[in-house]
Design goal:
eight-stranded mixed sheet, globular
Length: 472
C-alpha cells in the first residue's frame, strides 16, 4: 500500500480528480477525505447557461458584423448574406445560422480596453478591470461561473453544478479564470479530451458492476467512520475543499445518472451527425445532455485542430492566413452552434437555458499582412506573406440565444469599418450582469464573502443589457 506523506502542500484538485476517477483502489487516499455516501437527490431544473468560448478572439467583421462598404485593406473577401430576419445579415461563412436568426440575438457593440489575451479573457469572464496583461498574475476576481456556483450553494448532487467540456481555465497555460477567494469547492469539474473519438469516456464513470459498487461504497463508509473517530480537526480543515471534489468524484462513479449523461453513444446517430461528428459538435451535444441532466453552468471551449495551425482564433498573419483559417473552421462552428440552439429550442429548453458565444475580443478591421511563422493548416510556409487581423478589444460581437431573451434582433452597431461602436456601447460587465440576471441573481445587490468574511459585490460595475432579457 502506498504511504502518503503528511499534508504539507495540498495536491491540486485536478490531481485529486484524476486519482479519484481512476478508481478508489488505495485506502491511503481515503485518509485525506471524508467521503460521504448518503443518497443524492435529483437536482432541480433551474435556469442554466452554456458558454461557447472562442479562445483567441474571433473576427467580428468576418462573421456577425460584416462590413461590405469598408475600403480596401479593411474589407474581407466574404460577402454578407440575408438571414430569416429582415435587415439582419451575417457573412456567407454562416449559412446555417443565417437561416435561424429569429432564434438568437447579436450584440455588435461590446467593447473594452484590455487588449491582451490574459487580461481580455479575465475582463470578459469576471469583469476584472486590471489593464496590464501580466502572465504571472492570477485572476483578481472569481469568474462568473464560480460565482454563480457559489451563490447557488452546496447541496449534494449526483452531477456537478458547473462542468467544463474542454474547460475555460487557461490561455497557453496562463490562468484566465478561477474561483479566487471562493476556494476550489466551486471550481469547474473538468471534462477533457475529444468527445467525438470512439474511446472518449470518463474513467470509471457510473460504475455498473454491483460487486464493485458495493466494494467501493463499503470502503468509503469504513474510512469515513475511522476519520470521524480520529477527530483530527486540523487535517479535516486542510482537506475540506478536496473532500468536496473527491466526494463529487465518488458520486459520479456510482451515479447511473452520470453514466447516462456523459455517454454520447446513447444519442441516436442521426442527432450526433446533426451536431457534427467532430470535436466542437460533440462538445455541444454533451453540453445539451448535461444541461438536460441538471448541470446548470457549462463552458465549452472551441479550440484545437479545428481552428487551424496554432489551434486557436488568434489570427495574426504570423499564425494564420486569417481568411483561410475562417473558411476552414467556420463550417464546424456553424454546424455545432446552430444545432445546439435549435436542439434546445425544439426540446423546450430555450427559456431555461441561455447560450452565450463569445471570445476575449474582436479582430482588427484593418488587415495586417505579415510573414508566416510556420506552415500548416490555414497558414503558408514559413516566410510566406499572408493577411492577418490583430487584437481588437475596441469592438466585437457576441451571440446570445435561449434564456427567454428577445431574439431576432441586433443590439448596438459599429462604424463603417467595424472599428468602434456607434450605438449602444456595451461593456463586458454589462454582459456579465445579463448572465447573472438570467440565473436569478441581482447584479447590483448580490454579494459573496471573501476569506476574511468581508462581503464583496459580484460585480463592481455593469447593468443588464436593456431590451435583451424578457420581463417575467
Amino acid at each position: 500500500m502506498k504511504i502518503l506523506r503528511p499534508i504539507q502542500s495540498q495536491p491540486s484538485r485536478r490531481e485529486l480528480l484524476s486519482i479519484g476517477l481512476g478508481g478508489f483502489t488505495c485506502l491511503g487516499l481515503a485518509d485525506l477525505l471524508q467521503l460521504r455516501t448518503e443518497a443524492a437527490t435529483s437536482p432541480q431544473q433551474r435556469t442554466a447557461v452554456i458558454l461557447v468560448w472562442l479562445r483567441g478572439g474571433a473576427s467580428h467583421v468576418d462573421t456577425f458584423d460584416p462590413k461590405p462598404l469598408a475600403p480596401d485593406g479593411f474589407r474581407g473577401p466574404f460577402r454578407p448574406i440575408a438571414t430569416d430576419v429582415v435587415g439582419i445579415k451575417v457573412t456567407e461563412l454562416l449559412p446555417r445560422l443565417a437561416k435561424m436568426a429569429s432564434r438568437y440575438s447579436l450584440l455588435r457593440s461590446i467593447a473594452h480596453s484590455s487588449g491582451g489575451h490574459f487580461n481580455g479573457s479575465r475582463r470578459m469572464l469576471s469583469g476584472d478591470l486590471d489593464p496590464p496583461d501580466v502572465a504571472s498574475r492570477m485572476p483578481r476576481a472569481p469568474d462568473w461561473m464560480t460565482v454563480a456556483n457559489a451563490l447557488r450553494g452546496r447541496e449534494r448532487r449526483q452531477l456537478p453544478r458547473y462542468v467544463g467540456v474542454n474547460p475555460v481555465e487557461k490561455y497557453d497555460g496562463i490562468a484566465i479564470a478561477g474561483p479566487n477567494y471562493l476556494g476550489t469547492t466551486f471550481s469547474v469539474f473538468p471534462v477533457e479530451g475529444d468527445p467525438s473519438r470512439p474511446d472518449f469516456a470518463l474513467l470509471d464513470m457510473g460504475v455498473d458492476n454491483h460487486e464493485k459498487r458495493t466494494r467501493i461504497q463499503g470502503r468509503a463508509e469504513l474510512r469515513s467512520a475511522l476519520d470521524q473517530m480520529r477527530g483530527d480537526l486540523e487535517v479535516a480543515a486542510a482537506v475540506k475543499p478536496h473532500d468536496h471534489f473527491m466526494s463529487q468524484a465518488f458520486d459520479l462513479m456510482l451515479s447511473p445518472q452520470a453514466r447516462v449523461a456523459f455517454d454520447l453513444t446513447r444519442e441516436p446517430l442521426a442527432i450526433r451527425e446533426r451536431y457534427g461528428m467532430h470535436q466542437w459538435g460533440q462538445q455541444c451535444l454533451l453540453a445539451r445532455r448535461l444541461v438536460e441532466a441538471g448541470v446548470e453552468i457549462i463552458t465549452t471551449q472551441f479550440d484545437g485542430p479545428l481552428c487551424g495551425r496554432v489551434k486557436n482564433w488568434d489570427d495574426h498573419a504570423v499564425n494564420h492566413h486569417v481568411f483561410d483559417a475562417l473558411q476552414f473552421r467556420m463550417p464546424y462552428f456553424d454546424q455545432a452552434v446552430s444545432t445546439l440552439i435549435n436542439d434546445l429550442h425544439d426540446r423546450g429548453l430555450d427559456r431555461r437555458v441561455l447560450v452565450v458565444v463569445a471570445g476575449e475580443f474582436g479582430r482588427s478591421p484593418q488587415i495586417n499582412p505579415n510573414a508566416s511563422s510556420g506552415g500548416g493548416v490555414a497558414s503558408g510556409a514559413t516566410g510566406t506573406k499572408q493577411p492577418g487581423r490583430d487584437h481588437w478589444p475596441q469592438a466585437g460581437s457576441v451571440l446570445l440565444a435561449g434564456g427567454g431573451i428577445q431574439t431576432g434582433q441586433v443590439i448596438g452597431a459599429t462604424d463603417r469599418r467595424g472599428e468602434a461602436p456607434t450605438d449602444r456601447r456595451v461593456g463586458p460587465e454589462d454582459l456579465l450582469a445579463t448572465i447573472y440576471q438570467h440565473l436569478g441573481f441581482n447584479p447590483r445587490s448580490a454579494t459573496l464573502h471573501d476569506a476574511t468574511g468581508r462581503p464583496l459585490p459580484i460585480l463592481e460595475h455593469g447593468s443588464p443589457i436593456a431590451g435583451l432579457l424578457r420581463q417575467s
